[in-house]
Amino acid sequence: MTLNFSQLWRYDDLLLHGALLTLLLTVIAAVAGTLIGVCGAVLVRGGPRPVRWAIRGYIEVIRNTPALIQLFIIFFVLPSLGLRLPPFEAAAVALSIYFGAYAIEIIRAGLDAIPRAQLEAGECLGLTRWQVFRHIVFLPALRTIYPSFTSQFVLLLLGTSLASQVSAEELFHTGGFIDSRTFRSFEVYAVVCAIYFALVMAFKLVFAGLQRLMFRWPVRR
Amino acid sequence: MRTFNEADLISLFSALRWTVVLVALALACGGPLALLLALMRSSRLAPLRWLAAGVLQLVQGVPLLGLLMFFYFGMPVFLGIEVPSLVAVGVAFTAYTAVFLGEIWRGGIEAVKQTQWEAAACLGLTRWQQFRYVVGPQAFRMALPPTVGFLVQLIKNTSLASVVGFVELARAGQMASAATFQPLLVYSVVAAIYFTLCLPLTVWSRKLEARLNGAR
């Protein structure tokens, strides 16, 4: 058997479209998941007890079951409850819920890492509530969570490929379509993997660059 | 159309065996490779470090789904023979495990102070003995909680093997769901089985980590 990539070039615009949809799905899930993460982390630290238990339950259920099964439940089960979501939207919801559970844990750890005494020190210096939040809570916590948050983002980008299993249009699904047209399975998936790799590398570079730009102040250990 | 019954439940549990087989295979084959990658990454020879880092970036940069497809369709292309799906899936999960565990274990090795290597060298131990008797055991303690955490990821991710037709728990769930038209019930049962497998490991990993932090 020989490799033959030549048939694939006809589909370059499809692949580009798929890659853009993958990016869109990633961004939607990352933004929605981060919102869940911030609210969840704040509530799990200081909310009423039933709310804290509910959030803990959510985190444990999501983190201890496969994302694929979560996606199937949302896609196949919600219609029987009267909520019919198209594949792409269902995947966006499932991935947001999935990313949210991880985001809560990451953000909570970042907030936990700030010593209480540091907040009190800020107040003693006469900083306003906003200044305390900005300089003592937000920026140091952002610095703490940055590495784990960005690597979770990359895992999310790769995880959006699951959406193809409910035939949501994105890069992996596009690969399946081209495969069914050309029967060059290996070549198609090699190219699809290469595109994912390029996307991941681009994000890793940007994240590393941002880290250098944003967190210049020295840390005391 | 029929309803979900004991026979479906039995087929789910017999498919669970293949999930377990896949996890065992990935650990048995991927574990040694992970150790090799971790040692290469903390080697004194730069080319070895670069090679390991390259493999790591490459495998961590593609989706596991893509890795599965790559080996499933690629092995016949490169080897010229049809391989059973267990082999293709096993190879993909071996690569996945090797890379992620390798990175975790490298972190463990690097968390041990450089002076421990030097002290061991002063005692006249060879490089391997330094790792085997001095650095390794300390790194093991540090790396155990995330290793158990990775095990949970691995169990969950074996569900992806279903996409190349390998019948494990998730695939058996899909088939039962298609036969009974009761996706809510079937997928809830499947999710519950994964949950009962993974939750104890998650709790154990958290306890190990708390103990490690307490000891410091």
Give a quick summary of the entry.
The complex is a heterodimer of chains A (221) and B (216). With 221 residues, chain A is an all-alpha fold.
Plain-language structure description:
The complex is a heterodimer of chains A (221) and B (216). By secondary structure, chain A is mainly alpha-helical. Helix content of chain A is 76%, strand content 0%. Chain A has a single domain, classed as MetI-like fold. Chain A has helices at residues 12-46, 49-63, 67-77, 87-112, 116-124, 129-159, 171-182, 185-214. Chain A starts with 11 loop residues before the first helix and ends in a 7-residue tail after the last helix. Chain B has 216 residues and is an all-alpha fold. Chain B has one domain (6-215): MetI-like (MetI-like fold, Orthogonal Bundle), CATH 1.10.3720.10. Chain B is flat and about 75 Å long. Chain B starts with 5 loop residues before the first helix and ends with a helix. The chains are: A mainly alpha (221), B mainly alpha (216). Chain A binds chain B through residues 1, 3, 60-61, 63-70, 72-73, 76-77, 80, 154, 158-159, 161-162, 164-165, 172, 175, 185-186, 189-190, 192-193, 196-197, 200-201, and chain B through 57-58, 60-67, 69-70, 73-74, 76-77, 80, 152, 156-157, 159-160, 162-163, 170, 173-174, 177, 183-184, 187-188, 190-191, 194-195, 198-199, 202. Chain B: One of its GO terms (molecular function) is transmembrane transporter activity. Chain B: The chain crosses the membrane at residues 15-38, 50-73, 85-105, 184-204. Chain B: It is found in: Cell inner membrane; Cell membrane.
